[in-house]
UniProtKB/TrEMBL annotation:
Domain of life: Bacteria
Binding site for Mg(2+): 47
This enzyme's EC code(s): 4.3.99.3
Protein name per Swiss-Prot or TrEMBL: 7-carboxy-7-deazaguanine synthase
Function recorded in the entry: Catalyzes the complex heterocyclic radical-mediated conversion of 6-carboxy-5,6,7,8-tetrahydropterin (CPH4) to 7-carboxy-7-deazaguanine (CDG), a step common to the biosynthetic pathways of all 7-deazapurine-containing compounds.
Organism: Novosphingobium nitrogenifigens DSM 19370
Organism taxonomic ancestry: Bacteria, Pseudomonadati, Pseudomonadota, Alphaproteobacteria, Sphingomonadales
Pathway the protein contributes to: Purine metabolism; 7-cyano-7-deazaguanine biosynthesis
Cofactor, how bound (note): Binds 1 [4Fe-4S] cluster. The cluster is coordinated with 3 cysteines and an exchangeable S-adenosyl-L-methionine.
InterPro entries the record matches: 7-CO-7-deazaguanine_synth-like, Aldolase_TIM, rSAM, rSAM_sf
Annotated SUPFAM superfamilies: Radical SAM enzymes
Binding sites annotated in the UniProt record for S-adenosyl-L-methionine: 44-46, 97, 146-148
Entry similarity comment: Belongs to the radical SAM superfamily. 7-carboxy-7-deazaguanine synthase family.
Cofactor: Mg(2+); [4Fe-4S] cluster; S-adenosyl-L-methionine
Length: 248
């Protein structure tokens, strides 16, 4: 087994140092590694190249054109760990695609990172619909959980798994990060908060958008909604700094 990663350019794994642009660790220097493949298909996914492959059958998404090129690279877990450690940066953010789809290989990769740097802080970005394996879970400091609301275009029975949402809500390492495009989307957030008892300290709302103007416009009404509800707002710092660019 090996890890299947996304690529920046063909043959080049998406592995880079940047600032964490979103959520509880916003602004912290981090190494990012982006895994390929996803179990969902969000309408506005900013990394559709990790899953929108030719021949990929997603009955609930008949409105998207699938790409012909795979944008994937397979790599040895130990080699990826060595490359991560070489940055000398004390935080690792594992993202995708949906990283928890590759939990066994990911656990081996992270174990090798830990062996090289016991103090490394390790975060996983996840859509929250997949359970980590116990071996992986034991190695993780923080989960950034972004459950997908109705406006993502995913059916709720695929995206919102009750026992998973309950488990994340009860895990002090898990920060929720809801992507919001219109004020109507907030109604579903309120419902999930009530159903699962999500605490406001670990709940972010984040504007949907891949350009600064859109993020700014949506942040204005999002800020007032967060003030009213006691939630936190997160921007997308990397978009302001680098635009919607692979490997940033
Ligand atoms: C590309 S996803 C990868 C991790 C995982 N699949 C997930 O959805 O959380 C990384 C983060 O970007 C967010 N995201 C993706 N497209 C976005 C967009 N157009 N606007 C705002 N956030 C977006 C996701 O909700 C998630 O928090
Ligand atoms: N700088 C930066 N911060 C991020 N935080 C979460 C990201 C992601 O795509 O998961 C991301 C990303 O792609 N870039
Ligand atoms: S769950 Fe994440 S990677 Fe998958 S389609 Fe949605 S935003 Fe993209
Ligand atoms: Mg991103």
């Amino acid at each position: 087994m090996a890890l299947v990663l996304a690529t920046t350019t063909p043959g080049e794994a998406e592995l880079f140092a940047s600032l964490q642009g979103e959520g509880a660790s916003l602004g912290r220097p981090s190494v990012f590694v982006r895994l390929s493949r996803c179990n969902l298909a969000c309408r506005w996914c900013d990394t559709a190249y990790t899953w929108r492959f030719s021949g990929d059958n997603r009955p609930h998404r008949d409105d998207i054109a699938f790409e012909r090129t795979a944008n994937q690279i397979t790599a040895d877990e130990g080699d990826i760990a060595t490359r991560i450690l070489a940055f000398g940066v004390p935080r690792l953010v594992v993202t995708g695609g949906e990283p928890l789809l590759q939990a066994p290989a990911l656990a081996r990769m992270i174990a090798a990172v830990r062996a090289g740097n016991e103090a490394m802080h390790i975060e996983i970005e996840t859509n929250g619909s997949v359970a980590p394996t116990p071996a992986l879970d034991a190695l993780i400091d923080q989960y950034n959980v972004s459950p997908k609301l109705a406006h993502s275009g995913n059916p709720a029975d695929l995206a919102l798994i009750p026992e998973r949402l309950a488990a994340w809500a009860a895990d002090p390492r898990a920060y929720f990060k809801f992507v919001i495009a219109t004020p109507d989307d907030l109604t579903q957030v309120r419902e999930l908060v009530a159903t699962y008892g999500i605490v406001p300290e670990r709940l972010f709302v984040m504007p949907e958008g891949t350009d600064s103007a859109t993020l700014r416009e949506r942040s204005r009404w999002l800020a007032q909604a967060a003030i009213d509800a006691g939630w936190r707002v997160t921007d997308r710092l990397h978009i302001h700094l680098y635009g919607d660019t692979r490997g940033t």
